[in-house]
């Protein structure tokens, strides 16, 4: 009788653990939000190494950024040359970015989209003039070798009314 009770308890525990919601989804979402947090940190502090670590270094990486040529960036090397090297080489401008309404949508276990709205404030250290822009942001991330990396980046400015 006692063996039967212990066996029943073990079966019940195994069943409960197998149907309990997985903590993986929440931790994946947290990791993806951390990619965005690290992106903002890298951009605002000029940390090129951190920025580089956030992207998939592949010819399939793509981007759409307003005000850059070409409009569609295809491949990590092009993104590196046409965007990040020029941004991090420009004179120091104090930048703050606030990211609003982040939403993570899991497409597959290893693919997700993060969307949100960002407010970018650039202050010229010499004139103290502040320029503010508002952007819609969509980043596609893929888990590659256990790490969430940006595989597509799309930023578009919100039209000024």
Structural write-up:
The termini are far apart. The chain is an alpha+beta fold and 161 residues long. It has helices at 2-19, 24-45, 48-53, 76-89; strands at residues 62-64, 72-74, 94-108, 111-123, 130-144, 147-157. The protein has one domain (26-157): Nuclear Transport Factor 2, Chain: A. The protein is globular. 14% of the residues are buried. The chain has a six-stranded mixed sheet with strand order 2-1-6-5-4-3. Residues 13-23 have low confidence and may be disordered.
Could you give the topology of this structure?
Blueprint: H1 2-19, H2 24-45, H3 48-53, E1 62-64, E2 72-74, H4 76-89, E3 94-108, E4 111-123, E5 130-144, E6 147-157
Parallel strand pairs: 1-6
Antiparallel strand pairs: 1-2, 3-4, 4-5, 5-6
Enumerate the strands of the largest sheet in spatial order, edge to edge or round the barrel. 2-1-6-5-4-3
Helix/strand-derived category reads alpha+beta
Helix content: 25-40%
Instruction: Give the percentage of residues in beta strands.
Output: 35-45%
Number of strands: 6
Please report the number of helical segments: 4
CATH fold title = Nuclear Transport Factor 2, Chain: A
Radius of gyration of CA atoms, rounded to a whole number? 21 Å
CATH top level? Answer: Alpha Beta
Order of helices and strands: HHHEEHEEEE
User: Which consecutive residue ranges, at least 5 long each, have pLDDT under 50?
Assistant: 13-23
- The CATH architecture is Roll
The major sheet is characterized as: 6 strands, mixed
**Shape assignment:** globular
Q: Kindly state the mean pLDDT as a whole number?
A: 82
The number of distinct structural domains comes to: 1
State the end-to-end distance: 77 Å
């Amino acid at each position: 009788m006692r063996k039967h009770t212990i066996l029943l308890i073990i079966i019940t525990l195994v069943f409960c653990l197998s149907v309990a919601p997985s903590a993986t989804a929440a931790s994946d979402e947290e990791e993806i939000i951390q990619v965005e947090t690290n992106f903002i940190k890298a951009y605002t502090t000029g940390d090129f190494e951190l920025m580089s670590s956030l992207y998939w270094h592949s010819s399939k990486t793509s981007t759409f950024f307003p005000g850059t040529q070409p409009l569609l960036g295809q491949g990590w090397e092009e993104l590196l040359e046409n965007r990040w090297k020029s941004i991090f080489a420009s004179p120091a401008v104090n930048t703050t970015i606030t990211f609003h309404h982040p939403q993570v949508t899991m497409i597959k276990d290893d693919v997700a989209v993060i969307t949100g709205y960002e407010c970018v404030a650039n202050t010229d250290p010499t004139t103290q003039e502040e320029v503010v822009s508002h952007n819609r942001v969509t980043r596609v991330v893929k888990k590659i070798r256990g790490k969430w990396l940006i595989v597509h980046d799309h930023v578009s400015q919100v039209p000024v009314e």
